[in-house]
Design goal:
This protein is of the alpha+beta class. The chain has two domains: 36 residues; 136 residues, Alpha-Beta Complex (Nucleoside Triphosphate Pyrophosphohydrolase). 40% of the residues lie in helices and 28% in strands. The strands form two sheets. The chain has a four-stranded mixed β-sheet, with helices on both faces. Strand 5 and strand 6 form a beta hairpin. It is extended, with a radius of gyration of 23 Å. The N and C termini lie far apart (67 Å).
């Protein structure tokens, strides 16, 4: 019998008793210890998609990516770090730039090494790039002339381009409507 079926078959009275019990400090601590020991954990990576006005994407050539050297800015989250904080930290560490965070573009589970990757849209603040020791080069690539990339990066870039195109079309329609009025 699965745990879910077992829990569903417990009368409400006992569920309420259990809920009161886990509020006790020791029992609460014991519950969190059980979660820590039993629930699977995943590495989490974050990437940033920055598009310029010409729909070019910022890519970095990484020292530690021997098979697919070009990729989006990003890296691993620190333990307990919020993904939205981590992606901006990675950007700052890798190229010395700051940005405004946009929406999540893509989430994927990747097999090697097993991890979850979250891709965010970002809007770069003006500034001079200062490459970290782990970055060989940084360059802007036309979306139709990208180097070899990991599939999740391509998917994130495609989503970012679609979103930017939709926003541009909405602005154009609004401007046209304003001119007509």
């Amino acid at each position: 019998m699965s745990l879910a079926l077992l829990v569903m078959s417990i009368p409400v009275f006992w569920k309420q008793q259990m809920a009161r019990l886990v509020r006790l400090p020791f029992m609460n601590w014991l519950m969190y210890l059980g979660i820590y020991l039993v629930v699977p954990r995943h590495r989490v990576g974050v990437t940033a998609v920055a598009l310029d006005d010409q729909q070019r994407v910022l890519l970095l050539r990484h020292v530690f990516h021997p098979h697919v050297p070009w990729g989006l800015p990003g890296g691993w989250l620190n333990r307990g770090e919020d993904p939205s904080v981590g992606v901006l930290r990675e950007l700052r560490e890798e190229v010395g730039l700051t940005a405004d965070l946009g929406p999540v573009l893509h989430i994927s589970r990747d097999p090697y090494p097993t991890h979850i990757t979250i891709a965010f849209a970002i809007h770069l603040h003006p500034g001079e790039m200062k490459l970290s020791p782990e970055i060989i080069a940084a360059d802007w690539f036309a979306v139709d002339a990208l180097p070899e990339l990991f599939p999740f990066m391509r998917a994130a870039i495609e989503t970012a381009v679609s979103m930017q195109s939709a926003q541009s079309q909405a602005v154009n329609r609004q401007n046209l409507q304003t001119e007509i009025d």
